[in-house]
Specification:
Low-confidence stretches: 7-28
Strand content: 15-25%
Structural class: alpha/beta
Helix content: 40-55%
Pfam families: Peripla_BP_4
Radius of gyration: 23 Å
Distance between the termini: 56 Å
CATH class of the largest domain: Alpha Beta
InterPro entries: Peripla_BP_I, SBP_2_dom, YtfQ_transport
Strand order of the largest sheet: 2-1-3-4-5-11
Domain Periplasmic binding protein: 36-280
Mean pLDDT: 93
CATH architecture of the largest domain: 3-Layer(aba) Sandwich
GO molecular function: carbohydrate binding
Bound molecules: alpha-L-arabinofuranose
Number of helices: 11
Protein name: Periplasmic binding protein domain-containing protein
CATH superfamily of the largest domain: Response regulator
Amino acid sequence: MTPREEIMTFFKALASATVLAGCMFATAQAEGLVVGFSQIGSESGWRAAETTLTKQQAEKRGIDLKFADAQQKQENQIKALRSFIAQGVDAILVAPVVATGWDEVLEEAKEAEIPVILLDRTVDADKELYMTAVTSDLVHEGKVAGEWLAKTVGDKPCNIVELQGTTGSSPAIDRKKGFEEGIAGKANLKIVRSQTGDFTRTKGKEVMESFLKAEDGGKNICALYAHNDDMAVGAIQAIKEAGLKPGTDILVVSIDAVPDIFLAMAAGEANATVELTPNMAGPAFDALEAYKKDGTMPPKWIQTESKLYTQADNPQKVYEEKKGLGY
Ligand code: AHR
């Protein structure tokens, strides 16, 4: 071997060793971490996918995930958080069912020096009480839906019915506000009925049935805006049972982009959806690992994307692509 070749061999070996050490170190950041996750429940397809992906992400990174299903109750979430604090976990993930009422328990976590990361929903509390929030821009999602409808309807008069998410939850509050912003200034667009369907298919169907009855069997309704796809899917069923064609007689726009809404779009029964990624845990664990490694503090908001899909976006293909991804 020439001296030059010897030097090259030395540096190659050094580079490989550095990469290997780097990988081992990176794995070690997450491995062995104990993280408590207080999930809301399983009200929607999107929620179920978020749970699956959080468990997968934890397993991939060697994180010991303590999972607690709150069955839609804030009191169960608060109990779970207190139990995680008592166990001395390294961090807590929480998807807060409603926006208010968190100050006290968040103070307790802060006192115990346990970082808290909010997943997919925000809270009305001092930002110093949590490390970061991984969420989409919930107002923007509603605005995208409203602007799509305003553009699609043009100058025609259009009575809209709205299915709201869980009362008091940040997506219900923000998606309502955003949609109203999206249709602002269009006097021909009017929200004539608005009620909670609690983010579930069953309630979405039930409430849509009552809207249809109240609006001359649906003849006075031009569009449905649902704060999530599951409620839209339930409502589509109600529209069909009332003898009308969803997607044609009544336009349907919603939020989440779960596989089932793409099936409905492929069948012409839904018109548009705004995507919300169920992989909130990936960015949350990245932030946690960076913090554990060298104290790097993430920004207070890690924003995920909100993409609009319509019937023009090959919904059947998107359905095929999506259905394996945690749903
Ligand atoms: O917080 C996110 C919302 O919660 C999703 O859009 C909805 O499907 C879920 O239940």
